[in-house]
Amino acid sequence: MYRACDFEPELPLPPAQLSEMDDVLVTSTRHFTPQALRLFLKCTRFITLGLAKVASEWWRRGDPVASGFAECLAVRTELKKSLAISDIMRTRLERFPARHRKHYTPEERFKILVLMKTYGLTSTEVARIFLIDAQTISRWQREALKEPESNTNRTILEVSQGAS
Questions:
Q1: CB proximity list for 140: less than 8 A, separation 6 or greater
Q2: Residue 11, helix vs strand vs coil
Q3: Mean pLDDT by 10-residue block, N- to C-terminus, for the chain (164 residues)?
Q4: What pLDDT shows up at residue 51?
Q5: How many helices (H) and strands (E) does the chain have?
Q6: Which residue range is the domain that position 117 belongs to?
Q7: The predicted structure's pLDDT at residue 87
Q8: Contact of 157 with 150, CB cutoff 8 Å
Q9: Could you tell me if residue 6 is inside a domain?
Q10: Which pLDDT score, from 0 to 100, does residue 89 have?
């Protein structure tokens, strides 16, 4: 058995290996029988509920380290959920040819530019994330700085002023 800290219950595997297990299981589900797949989905739900129960018990202890660990577990779980949703949506969008995808609204463009600057991402990284050309991102930046009175940029500026 593995014990990471004094407040942590005994786990059959180190936490890093536990988080890798679900990725391994999901990649092999295509060979499951319908009954095995139903069982897999039930087990996945029970494991999640079990982790939530353990986290809530840690939280109630009042120990700052245990509470911090519980909060970290909750945030990590939420992050994994968000990443899974994002991956599914991205995969779906990639199936559409670029010319058939909807254009980003001025508000979305502004949010993308803010995200890029906030996290120090390059135009190439942002373009890959949002399935657009890097030159498009550069153009949005130039337009926002050069022509703040244009229709599109006026909307971006209004959104940014309303957010502050």
A1: 109, 112, 113
A2: strand
A3: 44 47 52 79 84 84 84 87 86 84 86 90 91 91 74 50 47
A4: 82
A5: 7, 0
A6: 98-163
A7: 86
A8: no
A9: no
A10: 85
Amino acid at site 59: W
Q: Are 110 and 58 found together in one domain?
A: no
* Length in residues, the chain: 164
Last residue of a domain, one of 57, 77, 94: 94
Which pLDDT belongs to residue 88?
Answer: 83
Same domain membership, residue 86 and residue 21: yes
* Cβ atoms < 10 Å from Cβ of 40: 15
- Overall domain count for the chain: 2
pLDDT at residue 11 in the model: 44
Q: Which of 94, 126, 153 is the last residue of a domain?
A: 94
Structure tokens at 50: 């079990």
Does 8 fall in a domain?
no
Query: 68-97 in b/e burial notation, b at 16+ Cβ within 10 A?
Result: ebbeebeeeeeeeeeeeeeeeeeeeeeeee
Token digits for 18?
């536990």
At residue 48, what is the residue type?
Answer: T
* Rounded CA separation 7/73 (Å): 14
User: Taking the model in full, what pTM does it have?
Assistant: 0.55
